[in-house]
Amino acid sequence: MPDKVYVTYNQIHKLCQVSADKILKDVRPNLMIAIGGGGYVPARILRSFLKRPGEPNIPIQAIGLSLYENLGRSDPEEQPGTKVTRTQWLDLSSLEMANLIGKNVLIVDEVDDTRTTLEYAVSELEKDVKLAQKNLGREAEKTTFSVFVLHNKDKPKKGKLPETMTDAGRYHAAVTTQDVWICYPWEATDIDEHDRLAQESYI
Ligand code: 5GP
């Protein structure tokens, strides 16, 4: 397998389509949280396949996370390693976080590489929604989190997801790949060349 593979919009559309049935069966999401920027397009496509006649469109909220290497120089208390920062988050004090309470929330990203991002997103959202439930006296309502990614790289993961999520089938990857670099169409500056390279790629 080459160390770089190219994926087209059409392939991504179809990956969302084939995943939708399983997601509807196992998750029945009523809200999606797209991790920007890679989760936006898959979340939007998936929404079309999750729509059921007579039911409203599933709303999509966006969060932004960024990875950085902490060298442990500025704060000796902090362990060196890959860290995550929030560049965009849901507002705890407004309706944004309260909106998650009691829902089946599907977190969408394009790729699960080291799993650092997903671990952060799931654990922080769980923590914040718990706090919002406590503040609003709505602790009895059950909020569940699930994950959908287009590609999961088959490699040792640095991040962990709750076993309650993985055991219950609430983690879904459309494709499990080897540890290759995946080039997504929304990153392309020349989409025709990207699509040409995709014809030579396999995944
Ligand atoms: P993580 O290592 O936390 O699972 O992934 C962090 C982020 O790195 C992903 O959300 C994605 O933006 C980026 N990333 C990781 N692997 C790939 C890849 O193969 N292709 C692209 N385009 N981005 C990747």
TrEMBL record:
Keyword Membrane: no
Protein name per the record: Phosphoribosyltransferase domain-containing protein
CDD domains (alphabetical): PRTases_typeI (cd06223)
Keyword Transferase in annotation: yes
InterPro entries the record matches: PRTase-like (IPR029057), PRTase_dom (IPR000836)
GO molecular function: guanine phosphoribosyltransferase activity; hypoxanthine phosphoribosyltransferase activity; xanthine phosphoribosyltransferase activity
SUPFAM superfamilies associated with the record: PRTase-like (SSF53271)
Gene3D superfamilies per record: 3.40.50.2020
PANTHER family reported for this sequence: HYPOXANTHINE PHOSPHORIBOSYLTRANSFERASE, HYPOXANTHINE-GUANINE PHOSPHORIBOSYLTRANSFERASE
UniProt GO BP: GMP salvage; hypoxanthine metabolic process; IMP salvage; XMP salvage
GO cellular component: cytoplasm
Top-level taxon of origin: Eukaryota
Keywords: Glycosyltransferase, Transferase
